[in-house]
Amino acid sequence: MSWSKEQMADQVVKLFTPGSSVNLGIGMPTMVASRITPEMDIMIHSENGVLGVKGRPAKDEVSPTLINAGKETISIKPGASFFDSALSFGMIRGGHIDFCVLGGMEVDAKGNLANWMVPGKKVTGMGGAMDLVNGAKQVIIMMSHADKEGNVKLVEQCTLPLTGVGVVDLVVTERGVFKPNGKGFDTLVSAG
Question: 47 catalytic, yes or no?
């Protein structure tokens, strides 16, 4: 038994504290926005200069000027604010983001993260990931447990270029919630 992507997103949401600020990376982590309830009072930050992202808009509410860092259309909650990239990265680098949720290609037992490059393959780049893993108070990786070839992505030591050293707090995959412990991974919650 394993979790669906929606169930993985629900596990991530359970890790947030009410009233916190959250940055969601591109890909699978963007699903988390639609699983957050209004009662949690979470402020979603996007490094392109938005604080107060609410999730994906309904078809009749789409605005081409409201996008997240992954260039997906978004909706905003009342009280949202907009600012330039310098201020946005100042928020990240200044430690004002409580949680960041990023995708990953590899996470190792020491909490190292590789999520931006596979040598010899075209990848879109790292965006704000290096800043986020060093500036956010807690780093959560939301990813599939194995790559397309079936290789497990929780490894003893990363072989891909690193995004950050010793930065990962928790990993959520379809098989469970894991915590790097320096020698392996502790299973905090198992999908079955």
Answer: yes
CA dist., res. 125 & res. 117, Å (int): 7
Q: How many domains in the chain?
A: 1
Write out the residue range of the structural domain in which residue 158 sits. Answer: 5-190
Most confident of 61-65, 73-77, 170-174: 170-174
| pTM beyond 0.85, yes or no | yes
In the chain, the N- to C-terminal Cα span, in Å, equals 5
Mean pLDDT (the chain) is 93
Tallying the residues shown for the chain, one arrives at: 192
CATH code of the domain covering residue 137: 3.40.1080.10
Q: Which of 47, 61, 149, 156 is catalytic?
A: 47
